[in-house]
Amino acid sequence: MPIPGITVENILKDHDELEMILLAGEEGLINRISNSEINRPGLSLTGFFDFFAHDRIQVFGKGEWAYLNSLNDTQITAIAERFFEFHLNCIVFTHGNVPHQTFVDKCKLLKIPLFSSNISTHKFITLISQILDRALAPRTVRHGVLIEVFGIGIFLTGKSGVGKSETALELIERGHRLVADDMVEIRRLSESYLIGSCSDLLRHHMEIRGLGIINIKDVFGVGSVRDHMIIELIISLKEWEEDMEFDRTGLDNHTEEILGLQIPIVEIPVKPGRNIPIIVETAAMNQRLKKMGRNSAEEFNKKLTHYIKQNQIETNPIKNP
Questions:
Q1: Which end of the chain is more exposed for a tag (fewer CB within 10 A), N or C?
Q2: Looking at the chain, which residues constitute the CATH 3.40.50.300 domain(s)?
Q3: Are the beta carbons of 206 and 169 closer than 8 angstroms?
Q4: Active-site residue identified among 16, 200, 248, 252
Q5: CATH of domain 6-136
Q6: Could you confirm whether 56 is annotated as catalytic?
Q7: 294: annotated active-site residue
Q8: How do residues 113-145 score in pLDDT, each as one tens digit?
Q9: pLDDT digits 0-9 by tens, 160-209
């Protein structure tokens, strides 16, 4: 799997909200950013470079800009010589501040993109951090169908031809929404959840054997699709075999690991006569109940255990001596 990354040019072209104006180093727009953290080089400007995080976007806020303006040309030149010894991918001055000409000349010479942004330092760092977190998140691609059912992101998996797309199609007809068919792109945006989406090429399309490729958005309307969804449940569709065993109580909490996170998984046997879409809907509602702290299987098991104990007491009462 390729290392996640984003070029400076992608950030400049796709995110107008950053209000970035290129001042120098246009040839360096192909520089690739692979670290989502941001560095404010205030300490380095004083001459301390022992822990200089040069592989990050360098953001010069009001403090850094004011410090540079307090120095004379000789001092700024000395700082710039040391500062630009490191490989830098991008430099941004916030609050619309214009960098010293020495920085502009160095960036032109070394092909380092230099920007000025009109927004505040805090807002810029917040926005760019969100952009980089999404772009650099660990990711993988899985075969299956991702669909939203009653607000729950369900990832349908199973062997080719088992009926994943047909099940999803019936769910869409019942008012649920398609996220991705066939190839699901999965990203881990935090330590607790995964986001599933579809590539731009395949988005909103579905393959139905015997029918071909259809555009779900055009056929069922804009309300039948969405671009991404948190994956909360995996449903594995398996062809029915007489000797196979399936969970019949729901007490066993099985999970599958994706990108280091454990996602609940249930296996549903498929055979003629079974209404798989309505089972998927029920699984979604049951998962929603679990999120609210209600587990039907555990509650029934407690009632059954209590009933058995109570029945034993009534059948075999303790006799007084």
A1: C
A2: 139-295
A3: yes
A4: 248
A5: 3.40.1390.20
A6: no
A7: no
A8: 999 999 999 999 999 998 998 888 888 999 999
A9: 888 899 999 999 999 999 999 989 999 998 788 899 999 888 899 998 88
